[in-house]
Write a structure and sequence with these properties.
Helix content is 14%, strand content 46%. The protein is mostly beta strands. Strand 2 and strand 3 form a beta hairpin. The relative contact order is 0.35.
């Protein structure tokens, strides 16, 4: 789905020394908005920032037989100082 991303909000790095990768499970709605989002893995101090940012992302709708459909996907957000 990364190629379908049309609007991305970068996460705000929380006040922590933590670094790492947050992996999220997402359902992208037929209109391209992030409908459901849950954390699969990653450092707890960074999870909230990743979720807050990804909730604002917008995707180009995925088409199946010419009709927009919901998509089940994973999203990776990297935090590095």
């Amino acid at each position: 789905m990364a190629g379908q991303l049309i609007s991305r909000v970068d996460p705000v790095y929380p006040d922590t020394e933590a670094q790492g990768t947050i992996v999220l499970h997402a359902i992208i709605a037929p209109d391209g908005t992030v409908r459901q989002l849950s954390v699969i893995s990653g450092p707890p101090p960074l999870q909230g920032a990743a979720v807050d940012a990804v909730r604002q992302w917008i995707y180009k709708p995925y088409l199946l037989n010419g009709q927009p459909v919901a998509v089940d996907t994973t999203i990776t957000v990297n935090f590095k100082r």
